[in-house]
Amino acid sequence: MHYFVEIVGWAGAVLILAAYALLSLGKLQGRSALYQWMNVVGSAGFVVNSGWNGAYPSAALNVVWMGIGAYVLLQRRGGK
Q: What is the tens place of the pLDDT at every residue in 16-61?
């Protein structure tokens, strides 16, 4: 289980960093569904890893990060 949690955490880190790099390079827009999904899924990986390792401030931060992404995705779905 330890290795699974580590892999999930590292995959989350890669997704969030890739999203930021693509945004910074102008390859993605900040409100695009792909950018938001990369952040939501990446944050979920951090929540799993942080929670497992008892890093609760990091887990809380990433729950909020996921919530922001989910909110934007729901707005997009509603046509806003």
A: 999 999 999 999 999 999 999 999 999 999 999 999 999 999 999 9
Locus of tokens 């880190």: 13
Pairwise CA distance, residues 49 & 33, whole Å: 24
DSSP H helical ranges for 1-80: 2-24, 33-52, 56-77
The model's pTM is 0.90
**What are the backbone dihedrals phi and psi of residue 55, each rounded to the nearest 5 degrees, phi first?**
-90, 75
Tell me which residue of 79, 57, 69 sits closest to 33, measured CA to CA: 69
47 close to 62: Cβ distance less than 8 angstroms: yes
The Cα–Cα gap between 42 and 33 comes to 14
What is the domain partition of the chain in residue ranges? 2-77
8 A C-beta contact, residue 57 and residue 17: no
